[in-house]
């Protein structure tokens, strides 16, 4: 990189003052500063884009590593489950080899319990609704009793002057 010291910058400024002149020098300096700033912003944008692409590549590599590790774990789990189920099936078949399905060989009847039947939970929604305190229902605007539309209008109608209400 080019190394500019104070002496070189002073020499460049003196030459620019002589060549350009004192009237145009501030405007030229502003323009040069503007273009230098624009170049610096462009360089920093390029650096940021390169860093983002490098980070993206690293993330993609990490993602592929995690995917392969997860696949390996999944295959291992499936293999172990298959081995365990096959050994269980084998030991089950060995244990039940002497028994027949109708019980004729052993002479004893095995009682098998009936499968459980569905029972309704017997939840009463009226009981649930009444468990909420009345003050809470009034605050939330829950209707606690039925009222016709005409009765609601009459209830909330403003009182006329001279009426007993």
TrEMBL record:
Keyword Ribonucleoprotein: no
NCBIfam families, A to Z: tatB
Subcellular location: Cell membrane; Membrane
Gene giving rise to this polypeptide: tatB
Identification of the protein by name: Sec-independent protein translocase protein TatB
Keywords: Cell inner membrane, Cell membrane, Membrane, Protein transport, Translocation, Transmembrane, Transmembrane helix, Transport
Family recorded in the similarity comment: Belongs to the TatB family.
Pfam family, one: TatA_B_E
Stretches the record annotates as Disordered: 84-109, 133-165
Membrane topology: Single-pass membrane protein
Comp. bias (Basic residues): 133-142
Gene3D superfamilies: 1.20.5.3310
Subunit structure: The Tat system comprises two distinct complexes: a TatABC complex, containing multiple copies of TatA, TatB and TatC subunits, and a separate TatA complex, containing only TatA subunits. Substrates initially bind to the TatABC complex, which probably triggers association of the separate TatA complex to form the active translocon.
Biological role stated in the UniProt entry: Part of the twin-arginine translocation (Tat) system that transports large folded proteins containing a characteristic twin-arginine motif in their signal peptide across membranes. Together with TatC, TatB is part of a receptor directly interacting with Tat signal peptides. TatB may form an oligomeric binding site that transiently accommodates folded Tat precursor proteins before their translocation.
């Amino acid at each position: 990189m080019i190394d500019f010291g104070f002496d070189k910058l002073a020499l460049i400024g003196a030459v620019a003052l002589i060549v350009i002149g004192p009237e145009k020098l501030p405007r030229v300096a502003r323009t040069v500063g503007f273009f230098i700033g624009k170049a610096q912003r462009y360089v920093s944008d390029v650096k940021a884009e390169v860093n983002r692409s490098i980070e993206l590549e690293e993330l993609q590599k990490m993602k592929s590593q995690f995917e392969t590790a997860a696949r390996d774990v999944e295959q291992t789990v499936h293999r172990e489950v298959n081995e365990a189920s096959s050994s269980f099936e084998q030991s089950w078949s060995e244990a039940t080899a002497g028994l027949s399905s109708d019980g004729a060989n052993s002479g004893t009847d095995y009682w098998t319990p009936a499968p459980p039947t569905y029972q309704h939970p017997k939840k009463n929604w009226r009981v649930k609704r009444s468990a909420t305190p009345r003050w809470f229902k009034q605050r939330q605007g829950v209707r606690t009793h039925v009222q016709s539309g005409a009765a609601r209008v009459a209830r909330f109608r403003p009182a006329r002057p001279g009426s007993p209400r």
